Amino acid sequence: MFNLLTAEKIKMRRSKKLWIALAILFILPIIQVINSQLTVHHGTELVQVIDTVINGATGILMMKKNGFTILLVLIVFISLFIGEEFQNGTIRNTLSLGRSRVHYYVSKFLAAAIFAFVGVLGMTVLGIASYTVVFGFGEVDGITNYIRYAIQSFSVLYLLILANVSIYVLISFLTKNSSISIVWSFLYTIATGFLPEIFQHTENFGHVTFWFTETFLFYFYFVSPADIAEIPRMIVVSIITIVLSSGLGILLFKRTDIK
Amino acid sequence: MAEIILKAANISKIYGKHKVLDNVSIKIKRGMIYGLIGENGAGKSTFMRAVMGLIAIDGGDIELFGETSTKGLQHARRKMGQSIEMPALYPDLSARENLQVQAANGGVGEREIADLLRLMNLEHTGKKKTKHFSLGMRQRLAIASTLITNPEFLILDEPTNGLDPSGIVEMRDMIQRLVTERGITVLLSSHLLDELSQIATHYGILHEGKIINELSKEDLARVARQYIEVETTEVEKAVVVLDEMGIQDYEVINGIEIHIYERLDEAAAINRALVFENVRVSRIGTTRQKLEDYFLQLTGGTKNV
Description:
A: mainly alpha; B: alpha/beta; Rossmann fold; Alpha-Beta Plaits; 13 strands; 35% helix; ATP hydrolysis activity (chain B); transport (chain B); ATP binding (chain B); AAA+_ATPase (chain B)
């Protein structure tokens, strides 16, 4: 497993796609702080529920503010990162050495998870720093222990993102083609991200939407006590998503013929 | 007795209703260069993939280095290298970086990289990305990549595919060198028997998923033996002359052609005798049966060859 991760490190270090993806995630908070500053400059006050990040302290919620963008970047990166192994035939080089398919799948998931972590960590740090410079650090309304809140909300938001990473990895291994994977991953994200708003108005489907991590990522604000009370459920749903999708992915990948 | 490296017994693979491999059995001993010959779509690449564990088989058994269990096979495959179909490389990485990735995959050090790049004449490629390499360079790099883990058994699927004549000669020499210098056993495929005959020591002819013949180099030499080809419109008269000369090993091919398989250095004397007996000879000369003709004769067709 360690050998496979070393190989991933070599590939990723030289990958232009990785640097482009990270650049997008890192530049985003800078653009947003400029945008917020212009908004305030024109006389509109920033509102936490609408703008999510309004000062340095709320910068910890950069993942929430940019949830959809992060997912789009991850879709493209993961689809290319895994799909090209099938398309270039390089997956044969690894598997024909007798490497376990479980290890191969897990190494890809871990590489994607590490990439996502570096991306969202950088984005959050830059978000906190840039908003602090422009608007001051300030505070999060109703939060007394900020460090605890920051660690908790960052971890949960990352876990919600990780659940999606797991789904995208599954789709990439199933489709074995980067373009098709991008399309299916995008459709999954749109469906689970935007349909809950409609379904939540119905009695039968309202609760079903809580089985998808996008519901929490897109429709919860992570500051009100009611939202914070949902954190255990977010953790459970994320973990179940990761375990089920990875389990299914590994099972199907073990049966896949490599052309 | 040489150790058996690969023993494939009754391997079958079915895609939908199509049986791509039909009870294929092959034995490869250490030191052999086993050439797998077949038309496009005969099942060569599928067989190689099955040996490498890339596809699941629907029937049969594979034994590698004496191992048959799933774990054992997985372990045995660490002693193998493969380049199946097109060279599988990372297009955005340099030659060195591609080898670094494969070294990491195999859990081996990077000490051999410089030597392998030199061996494959790729030492001057520097930071050039492999997407800018010629096909010949990519083929050589793919083989270097298979060698990074010091394999004992190499599987090469059509390694000369798409190469120009000098590239083909270069590739052939390189495989020969690997066998003599490193003692590697090789399974390679081609759809050209003539090309394989210049390198392989043993041959398996795969046709529509079945092994229809297995030959050694000596068997093939016999098949492709030399003969004197006589072209005449008076075959019956010519046969009488040949009998009088005591020539027994000959074959009347058709109404105008006789093949004589003995006294190959006496073509002039035979010609003189035929002319002396007023047999009109339109052509006489020494020639060799084309291997491709033999292959077509076996497979009974002309498609895709």
